[in-house]
């Protein structure tokens, strides 16, 4: 049965109970839509990656085909989802202990430069050493030693020359004593070649040179002994550092709720898990990136920023749907105003301001949601594409793409339904073209309606008293006789038929009513008919033709002192169905 109920949802998305989670659409669709469409979190990459797993996804959808079935209560989750939630909490706790949610400092970018310099210096020194070694390895000191050990007689001049050379050379070549020995031998061998009578000196010097390496090790020992105090100092400092207590775990909140606090935290974590199909590592990475982005973007400070109200008619919250979700309206036709368009998208600075305004608006809306397990934590989006600028607007396309990337990466699972009304033919064709690439769950969240069907689609999800008058509803700004608490009744009037509505009156009272026909183009009249047979019918409103542009809502009242009924007559003489919406109430009065 679950599969049967879900398949119609894919073909006809308007099911009354919808999923609460924001799915991610392709960037192509987002580009063709408008900036606030970016709230729709649809990732083309995810859609493509999930294609091979369509069967698995379908089974998930059948299990949770509506918002009510996707519980946010941790104890009611299926075991795999419960396990994923626990694992995600562990990862977050470890990250908080290590302060991994802190944005990386800007200084890190400059660190590679000195390292490169060190690497450059090292090869230079090694090259110098190799040159010295090559020069010193050229002679053969061993042969000289073996040949000249036989003559020990003359020793007087040798020590003087040796001392002078040893005094001059060691300071330069102290770090490498072996090279000192070899250079002495080379010099004395050359001296011996010049004067054969001084071979004895060369012999003695070579013997001295061979004997010198042991003392040459003493400076190394001294150097090592000189380092010992430093090492001792470091070892003394280490315990002092170990005594410093570790910093307390990092405290991180999103939308005013700590990541690990109570049941509300579980609701937020479930949003990230659902956005990543309960892949724990992917969900953790998404949370971490979101926290860092919010700090870098300055989201918390953005709430108090004054960004003007020029766009209050473009994006606004109004009423609730039949399940209690707040409804956000995105009216893209307002950008037909060239001045408004230029002031919003003309350059990078203005587009950046628009993006900050859009994030601010979304943040304020989210703060009003109820993140308790049984609360409403998602929004219904209504996107009005009437007279909207086409996809050829480059500046608008840039702002849309920029907003899309931010919203889909940092605001997962916040849209319960995406309703597109007054959709032009080209958008419907484009939607049909990309539909095969979207998952069943994603498609179940999108509803598109042509101009003729827009009001009917809205009434399917939102009660008429909650729908603004410009979209066929009864909700108006300012003080009115009726409020959203006064429910309205919907009736479909067939073509070429007459429909009557009666409001009974049982006592002395004033009857007040509101009535509208979406698109009008009908005849309307009202009269009072008394219960007494000898009473007279009173015409309250003479029958007249009401055109589409005449009135949106007709409000009237009638005061009577006898029982009877108010009768409204709507005559639809057209060949199209008409949607009638009305409500009434009686106010008793005393003389």
Task: Walk me through this protein's architecture.
The protein is an alpha+beta fold and 591 residues long. Among the domains are: 76-99 and 249-297, Orthogonal Bundle (Helicase, Ruva Protein, domain 3); 305-462, Phosphatidylinositol Transfer Protein Sec14p, CATH 3.40.525; 489-588, Jelly Rolls (Sandwich), CATH 2.60.120.680. Helix content is 45%, strand content 17%. The protein is built from 20 helices and 15 strands. The protein has helices at residues 2-11, 27-32, 44-49, 54-63, 79-97, 112-137, 141-147, 157-173, 177-194, 199-211, 213-242, 263-275, 280-297, 299-302, 338-345, 348-367, 394-410, 425-434, 440-443, 454-461, and strands at residues 253-254, 257-258, 315-320, 326-331, 379-384, 415-421, 446-448, 489-493, 497-505, 509-517, 522-530, 538-546, 554-560, 564-572, 578-588. The chain is elongated and about 100 Å long. The protein starts with a helix and ends with a strand.
SSE inventory with pairings:
Layout: H1 2-11, H2 27-32, H3 44-49, H4 54-63, H5 79-97, H6 112-137, H7 141-147, H8 157-173, H9 177-194, H10 199-211, H11 213-242, E1 253-254, E2 257-258, H12 263-275, H13 280-297, H14 299-302, E3 315-320, E4 326-331, H15 338-345, H16 348-367, E5 379-384, H17 394-410, E6 415-421, H18 425-434, H19 440-443, E7 446-448, H20 454-461, E8 489-493, E9 497-505, E10 509-517, E11 522-530, E12 538-546, E13 554-560, E14 564-572, E15 578-588
Parallel strand pairs: 4-5, 5-6, 6-7
Antiparallel strand pairs: 1-2, 3-4, 8-15, 9-14, 10-13, 10-15, 11-12, 11-14
């Amino acid at each position: 049965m679950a599969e049967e109920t879900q398949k119609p949802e894919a073909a006809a998305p308007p099911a009354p109970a919808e999923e609460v989670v924001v799915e991610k659409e392709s960037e192509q669709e987002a580009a063709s839509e408008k900036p606030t469409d970016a709230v729709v979190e649809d990732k083309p990459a995810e859609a493509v990656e999930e294609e091979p797993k369509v069967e698995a996804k379908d089974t998930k959808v059948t299990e949770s085909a509506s918002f009510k079935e996707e519980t946010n209560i941790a104890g009611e989750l299926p075991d795999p989802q419960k396990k994923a939630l626990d694992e995600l909490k562990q990862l977050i706790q470890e990250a908080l202990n290590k302060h991994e949610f802190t944005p990386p400092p800007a200084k890190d970018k400059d660190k590679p430069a000195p390292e490169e310099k060190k690497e450059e210096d090292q090869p230079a020194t090694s090259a110098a050493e190799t040159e010295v070694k090559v020069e010193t390895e050229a002679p053969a000191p061993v042969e000289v030693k073996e040949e000249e050990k036989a003559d020990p007689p003359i020793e007087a001049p040798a020590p003087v020359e040796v001392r002078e050379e040893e005094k001059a050379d060691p300071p330069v070549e102290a770090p490498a004593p072996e090279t000192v020995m070899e250079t002495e031998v080379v010099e004395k061998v050359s001296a011996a070649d010049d004067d054969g009578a001084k071979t004895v000196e060369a012999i003695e010097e070579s013997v001295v040179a061979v004997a010198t390496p042991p003392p040459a090790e003493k400076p190394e020992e001294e150097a090592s002994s000189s380092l010992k105090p430093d090492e001792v100092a470091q070892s003394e400092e280490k315990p002092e550092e170990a005594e410093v207590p570790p910093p307390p775990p990092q405290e991180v909140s999103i939308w005013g709720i700590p990541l690990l606090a109570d049941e509300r935290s579980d609701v937020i974590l479930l949003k990230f898990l659902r956005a990543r199909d309960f892949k724990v590592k992917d969900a953790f990475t998404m949370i971490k990136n979101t926290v860092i982005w919010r700090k870098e973007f300055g989201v918390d400070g953005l709430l108090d920023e004054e960004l003007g109200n020029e766009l209050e008619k473009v994006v606004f919250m109004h009423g609730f749907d039949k399940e209690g979700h707040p409804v956000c309206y995105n009216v893209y036709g307002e950008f037909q105003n060239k001045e408004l368009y230029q002031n919003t998208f003309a350059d990078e600075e203005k587009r950046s301001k628009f993006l900050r305004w859009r994030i601010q608006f979304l943040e304020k809306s989210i703060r009003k949601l109820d993140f308790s397990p049984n609360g409403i934590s998602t929004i219904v989006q209504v996107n009005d594409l009437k007279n909207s600028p086409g996809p050829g607007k480059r500046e608008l396309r840039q702002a849309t793409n920029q907003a899309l990337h931010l919203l889909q990466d940092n605001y997962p699972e916040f849209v319960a339904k995406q309703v597109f009304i007054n959709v032009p033919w080209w958008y419907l064709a484009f939607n049909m073209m990309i539909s095969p690439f979207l998952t069943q769950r994603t498609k179940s969240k999108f509803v598109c309606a042509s101009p003729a069907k827009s009001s009917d689609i809205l009434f399917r999800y939102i009660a008429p008293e909650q729908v603004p008058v410009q979209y066929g509803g009864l909700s108006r700004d300012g003080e009115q006789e009726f409020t959203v608490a006064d429910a309205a009744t919907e009736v479909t009037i067939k073509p070429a038929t007459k429909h009557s509505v009666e409001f009974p009156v049982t006592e002395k009272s004033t009857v007040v009513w509101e009535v509208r026909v979406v698109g009008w183009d009908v005849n309307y009249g009202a009269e009072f008919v008394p219960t007494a047979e000898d009473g007279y019918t009173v015409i309250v409103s003479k029958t007249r033709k009401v055109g589409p542009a005449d009135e949106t809502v007709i409000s009237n009242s009638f005061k009577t002192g006898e029982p009877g009924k108010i009768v409204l007559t709507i005559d639809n003489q057209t060949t199209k169905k008409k949607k009638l919406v009305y409500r009434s109430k009686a106010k008793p009065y005393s003389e």
